[in-house]
Design a protein that fits this description.
By secondary structure, the chain is of the alpha/beta class. It folds into three domains: about 170 residues, P-loop containing nucleotide triphosphate hydrolases (Rossmann fold, 3-Layer(aba) Sandwich), CATH 3.40.50.300; about 70 residues, Orthogonal Bundle (Helicase, Ruva Protein, domain 3); about 50 residues, Arc Repressor Mutant, subunit A (Orthogonal Bundle), CATH 1.10.10. It contains 14 helices and nine strands. β4 and β5 form a beta hairpin. The protein is elongated and about 100 Å long.
């Protein structure tokens, strides 16, 4: 892997977004661009550039750790709403009753403990964007309220009948294909159609392996600078592991793996011992599986040779010269293989 890469040049929307970044956009002042050169990611970047300037709702589909929030950030900060708030909400992180209050707000006395009026996230996101992550976990009752906002831009706080108006762009994300939830009645079809006006699908990292080196170099450079370390590089064994691991946690897992390696490294090399133990075990397991594969392949080849040589000898009644000619081998090579597999010509004579 190259230490000195031009990763920023490969993060097309990231460059444009960075021009408008503010304190609300970055975490701890650190901007994270979308890095990738794989054709699937290039399509994602192009789609972001086309969709972002509109006010259309967007549904982002992708496994955990594929970068759905980065895409939501890009959509917001490349839009006309970039000077407004971006409110991220994890729909799976709160129980139903609390999620409803957080989304739509409540008035005093709406429930036990509601001692003051409180605006919800939709009010806070006015003239901005609300990012509803893991929307596939949202209860059906709340889905109905969300559908009303998408249809009318109106809502009411919990415990109140007063109709309020909001001007919010909705970007949602799901870990699974929502169509399957619609089929079994766990997600409202009309809400799915509203959210899925435009869909962006993020491929898992294992399906864009050509980006692993690019991402690894980007994270290495980023965290080396963050922790004020000297020039670091990956050992050959670590490079092999990084390029061949399946990453069930996707880009986030790769990032955390390299971040931990940078912290643990005591010289200028990130070694396999600096990787999480589960990764080390996987690497060893992969090596063992590879050894087992080679052994199995060798056994299959040996059995094939025994069967094929025997067939030729049987057809020629043990005549080695004719059998070798039938097999397309030199007599000496045919004879050597017979000895290798302990075959006797006399066993095939009538």
């Amino acid at each position: 892997m190259k230490q000195d890469t031009q990763n920023e040049a490969n993060s097309l929307p990231g460059q444009a977004i960075n021009q408008h970044a503010n304190s609300d956009f970055s975490q701890n002042g650190v901007f994270k661009p979308i890095v990738g050169q794989h054709p699937a990611m290039m399509q994602v970047l192009q789609l972001i550039n086309r969709v972002a300037p509109t006010d259309a709702t967007v549904l982002i589909i992708g496994e955990t750790g594929t970068g759905k929030e980065l895409v939501a950030n890009a959509l917001h900060y490349k839009s006309m709403r970039r000077n407004g708030p971006l409110i991220p909400v994890n729909c799976a992180a709160l129980p139903e009753n609390l999620l409803e209050s957080e989304l739509f707000g409540h008035v005093r006395g709406a429930y036990t403990g509601a001692v003051d009026d409180k605006p919800g996230w939709f009010e806070c996101a006015d003239h901005g964007t609300i990012f509803l992550d893991e929307i596939d976990s949202m209860p059906l009752a709340l889905q109905a309220r969300l559908l009303r906002i998408l249809q009318t831009n109106n809502f009411s706080r919990l415990g109140s009948r007063k109709i309020r108006h909001c001007n919010v762009r909705v970007v949602a994300a799901a870990n699974h294909d929502i169509r399957e939830l619609v089929k079994i009645g766990q997600f409202r079809q009309e809400l799915y159609f509203r959210l899925n006006l435009l869909e962006i699908c993020l491929p898992p990292l294992r399906e864009r392996r050509s980006d692993i080196s690019l991402l690894a170099d980007y994270f290495l450079k980023h965290y080396t600078r963050k922790h004020k370390k000297l020039y670091l590089r990956f050992s050959p064994k670590v490079t092999h592991v990084l390029l061949n691991y399946d990453y069930p946690g996707n880009v986030r897992e790769l990032e955390n793996m390299i971040h931990g390696g940078v912290i643990q490294s005591q010289d200028r090399m990130i070694r396999r011992c600096h990787l999480p133990s589960r990764i080390q075990c996987t690497a060893l397991s992969t090596a063992n599986h590879f050894s087992a594969f080679k052994l199995a392949k060798k056994c299959v080849i040996q059995q094939f040779e025994v069967d094929y040589l025997s067939k030729c000898l049987r057809a020629t009644e043990g005549n080695i010269t004719r059998a070798a000619r039938m097999a397309g081998l030199h007599v000496s090579n045919f004879h050597r293989k017979m000895e290798q597999h302990h075959l006797r010509a006399s066993s095939f004579k009538p």
